[in-house]
TrEMBL record:
Residues 1-55 are annotated as: Disordered. It comes from Polarella glacialis. This is Uncharacterized protein. Residues 40-54 have a biased composition (Low complexity).
Length: 105
């Protein structure tokens, strides 16, 4: 029966599920009783908002955040070292130019 279920756009059109019919550019998936439609994205691993996260889930999230912060600190250190090296190279070139200018006078 057309009009039951969720309508997903094929051509970038907005879904027409609120009208109870599929538009010309959408696919109508059948509705199943008792089946909750959730995102299947790998980023949506958390339970529904009504359930609080478990201790293990919090520990995993803390480990991920700590790892991300550690990686950011490493990148910051590498960027600072590169900036220091570039500054030193610029100073060396400037001193060489000044020496050349002084010799020319």
């Amino acid at each position: 029966m057309q009009g039951i279920g969720r309508h997903w756009p094929v051509n970038g059109e907005s879904p027409r599920s609120d009208l109870g019919m599929a538009s010309s550019g959408s696919v109508c998936l059948p509705a199943h009783r008792g089946v909750e439609h959730r995102s299947t994205s790998p980023w949506s691993t958390s339970p529904p908002a009504s359930a609080p996260p478990s201790r293990r889930q919090l520990e995993v999230m803390e480990e991920r955040v700590a790892g991300a912060i550690t990686n950011l600190h490493r990148q910051l250190l590498a960027d600072r070292q590169e900036a220091d090296m570039l500054v030193q190279q610029s100073l060396n070139r400037l001193e060489a130019r000044l020496g050349t200018c002084e010799q020319a006078q």
